[in-house]
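Morning run. Coffee first, then this:
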Amino acid sequence: MQGSFLSSLGRRAPSAYHRLQLWTVARSNLNRSPNSVVATPYSLCSYYSTQSELPLITRASNNAFFPPTHRSLGKGKSRVAPSHISSSSTKQQTSRQTAPGTKGHFAKANANLRNSSGNPSSRHARQYDHSNKSTKNNNKPDQQQPHDLHLYRTKADYLSQFEIPNKREYSRLRNSPLDLLLDTGRFTKVSIFGSSSRTPRGNVVHHVRATGKMQIDDTANSFVGYGAAETQAAAQKVAWLHIACQIHQKIGPEQFMGTTYDKGELTSEVLKKEKDSKLEVYEYCAAYNGTPEFHYRRVPRNRHHEILLNFPPQNIKIVVRHRDIALGDTIACLLFKKQAEQWHAQNAGSNLQVKNVLSLNSSNAKQFLDICKQQGKIGKYDVGIPDDKFSRVKGMHSLQALIDGEPLGQIVHGTSKKAAETLAYFVAALKLREAQPGIFADFIEALRAGKGEVLKPLTPIWFRSRWDYLQPMVDTVNMVRRIGIPREYSDTKSFQENDAATKSRSFGWSPPSSHAIKTRSQELLDEYLAYNTDPGLEEMRTKRADLPMNQHAAQVLDIVKNNPVSIIVGATGSGKTTQVPQILLEDAVKAGEGALCNIICTQPRRIAATSVAQRVAEERNEPLRKTIGYHVRFDSKVAAPSGSINFCTTGILLQQLRSNAEVALRGISHILIDEVHERDIQIDFLMVLLKRVMRQREQQGLPPIKVVLMSATMNTELFAGYFARKQENGRLKDCPSLSVPGRTFPVAEYFLDEVQSMLNAHYSASDLKLLRDPDTRDYLESESKYKAKVSPLQLTQASKNTSVPDDDTFIDWKRKAIVGDDGEVIVSNEKEDGLTPCGLIATVVAHLAKTTDAGDILVFLPGLAEIKLVDEMLRLKAPLGVDFQNSDTYRIDILHSSLPQQQMDVFHANAAGKRKIILSTNIAETSVTIPEVRYVVDSGKLREKRFEQTSRITKLQCTWISKSNSKQRAGRAGRVRNGHYYALFTKERFTEFRPSSLPEILRSDLQEICLDIRAQGFNDPIAQFLSEAIEPPSSHSIEAALSQLRGLGALEKDETLTNLGKVLATMPVEPSLGKMILLGVIFKCLDPMIILGAASGGRDLFVSPLERKKDAQAIKTAFTKGTGSDHMAIINAFREWRTRRDNESMFATSRFTEENFLHRGALRVIDQTANQIEEILVTEGIIPYLPKNQRFKGEYGHPRLNDNSTSTPLIKALSLAGTYPNVAVALGGLGFRTMEENFVMIHPGSTNYSGRGQGQGLPRDTIVSFGTKARSSDGKSTYMRDVTQNTVLNTMLFGGKPTQQKNMLLFDGWIPVSISDERVLKVVLQFRLVLDKVLNYVFQNVSVRKSNTEAAQADEKLRDVVAGGVLEVLEKYSEVHTSSPILSNRNIRSNTTLRSQRPMAAPGQRSFLRSR
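And here it is:
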């Protein structure tokens, strides 16, 4: 009974009641001997603790067990013990009291409690002495000691025994072990026992034994701790320390104390940025075929949450205790990543890409579930909240994947519902991966084919059939059958004859007699002597002589004469371009062999070739075409080929070498390739051809040609190794090089570290507020980590001393891996490379404006968007207090190719005391010179076009510059005086730059170059030829280009050119657009197709000034005339300009151009290119020649070939044929599906663009064609440019190859068209089959019609029938299914009416359509 009563009492009574009871029992024993005083409370405490199992407060037992003679009253005062405490109580007892628990003993304790309640001094008796100091009435040393004394240890003993390090993270374990135990939320105090004894010296030693229970792996484990110390409180701490050390040893420091980390590093910004770290942890574990274990527990004592993260395969255990469960969850994941990097560095042998698109991850888990569902392995899937409420975590979203209502995979917990849903699907997909390995393998292949995503099938598009446009299909099929399609014929001889006629005039010549050569050489010598003795040219001769290149003339001659290939690196201002050709020519003239020296010098741009030729002619005091000439596209002023220097574009020389290399180089002594570092696709192709030509000439015994590679900055080793020659001993020897310094002033260079130190030394943090701009902050952090060779995903700041995994075993958590053209995974740096520190740039400009008083500031930025942002920061935010809106002091100019008028403002002279700040793209590197620039601020970025061959996406990608670019930019500051170059990137980043820019051959469409190789007559496989390039493209890109050419019909399977391919190879447009132009010939719609072909690939026809973007877009939309076509806008705008140019004054035409936001240069280039295309078609015999004065309204081609040039439906259909496979299907809203992507959008520059606030976009299933695809600078979005709304009928006639699947046609395997009527399906297939056969026939024989009159007459009638039938079908369909009126139908100029009376259908094809 007593036990049950005490147990009940212990469970119900508060802790204050327990303390009072113990104090009363102790007080009743004060008259007893010290031994009995010690023993009774000891036993009572033991009983109490055991029965109640409640923790006893330590100080409640301190002095009640061991009452001293005097008690402290505080402030140094003391008082005598109460009178009822007898001094005889110090008398020793020889026997220990028995264990309490009897009824009488408990009653006595209650009686003492009642007696003491009325005693006024009882409150003083309850004041315990914590001083533990002995007094003058101390008793003799106790002889009674605990029987297990050998178990008691001091604090120092335990710290040594358990090897507890003296570190900050162990401070709570050493100083507050009980608090640490209780904070785990899994520890319970069970009992505590105390005793004391005296040493022979009179010192009191207290011994405490404590017991407690700890939940470990859902099991209660008991622990006993022994402590010894001079005070009882200290002894209790030691006892708890003993227990804590045992638990620390058993479960490890992570679970016991929590994982240690520096709270200062995990700022709110870091935690916000790492909000998706839990997904990354799951993806990391999935890479090792596992899933992490998360356990959550709430600790009521301190209102903390304990998060336990465990990954057993790698023995990673993380414990985090935090008041906010969401933040604690993120911190646990970050600490996991840190430990995972350490494990990976020690155990893995290669890098790990967490965001691997060719593996199962959180972003494609649902796609894998969809595939499993499509193959019938699973049914409906969803996520749900677990039924078991104990499985949920308060403050988190707890979800589990459900397959047909049954749970699959573990329960996951996310800080948001979306995150939890993503995790649930991912965990379920991992389970299915184990169960369905075969489906998973198919899934990976689908990812590879879709460039990292599984392409979703489209819902069938309904084809609405009516007799109005189906009957012309039947009639056309019957008429073609009656005429018959002739067998294909070919006449390769005619092509070869015509091929030579298409080529421009060659530089080569046949040397005349030796007497003529001698005479001409003497003439050149006399002219040279006269030049050197003319007093009027003294100043010119002095200027030339002062140039560094002329001062190194002997070395130039030596290296060129003694080597077949040589390299000359001439720094800016050295006179490399103008002087090297003259040095070589004048040396031959002085040697009496001037007539045999004929030099070709290539330039990468037209303007460079013409301007340099003009400059050199002026230096020689002679007119062009005497000894100096040039040859560029649409303009040729070639000098006589007997002692000459001709400047030309790389493309001109390439064209002549393709035609006939032996003829083109006959009589040529030197070929100089200037600006070779630019590495455009033509320069690389030219170097391959020159290597082959030099080898062939050597084998044929022809005179060698000296080749000189020139540049201001280049990767000398790369080019020297490429042109290495084999010596007699069989070893290769690199071609030699010569470096000539420039004539510029010194330029001081400052990198990012120095710039930051400079700003921090001059300004406070509040002054540098623009450095807190998000992009600037991320950029500076990225550069800091790059400098320290720290992964951007490390938790620690790069400035701190931390161990970093080796680069060979690096875990890339953030960067998204993409599928390259070769089908393999590559890491994308687009997001990091796209960061531009505009805030830092504006601050540096303001610093220069504030601390210097003269000199213009040139800022290099990657694009127009960054230029606008920096411009706004300077004008509106007044960085460092500088007022850039003060027009009397500062002028901000913008230099960008799309703003020609503002470009001219840059060159206007400044007023006195005014400084220019020029914000420019890389156009200011080489093309322009601004003399007053003394300061250059370089972002280190540029935008360049990059083409993905397989997906046919053109990206204007923001990327790092090369060392060559950096050198050119720095040189802008030292033209007139000493300059300063501020490179806003680290020195470590600079050392990793490419020597020169990425060559164009690695980032361009290879179709044209593949055609060129075959047209040149090389018999090697195309891939083998391109493998000889200095930096060859990937084999996958080459194969993709060849596949596209085969699809066009330009190449046979064995890579031989078809007749169509021979024609396409001659056209100055890409092959698909060349085919579109030929379709314009066939369908008598030539003028619009030539305009579209000439406009593609060049500068945008429409300009969009910054301050009038809306007006420019409105004008562009007006040019579409309601057709919904960007292509029609281009055609209509150009036609209108052409009409005004031919009929109005130059001033009126110029005003029209400006008012309608048209680019003058683009209009001229389109006109010149169109004339060239027309000339090629005439030369090939494809169209007849017509003088310009006989043209109808200036149209290109014969009027007969433009009968249908105003038919909008036909123009749209042919534009689709020319741009295919660039076709997309509207998904509803803003998204479209293409052949390669699940989701693309229309570019904001298109007239078909509708923003998020401007409606819902085009209706679902609308088919559009587009010119190119472009990826956004951050790589997240893909856009379509030059978009035209088309129809399903146009796709059926000119789209991909159709295959029948029951009542549906599938075009190229991805566009499904549903046709419910089987008869309609049959008609459409027959019409498409006839159309393809006729077009293939015409294409394959298009280049031989000139020499075969009978063939030309045979296919003329066939072409007219098919063209007329297609036109009628398209216009009838447009009339029926277009809500807006047809703005332009068939050509009203035609003398004949197409199908004025529909012919009768052939038997078997009669009127089932009409009967509908």
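Residues 548-740 form a domain with the Rossmann fold fold (CATH 3.40.50.300). Good start to the day.
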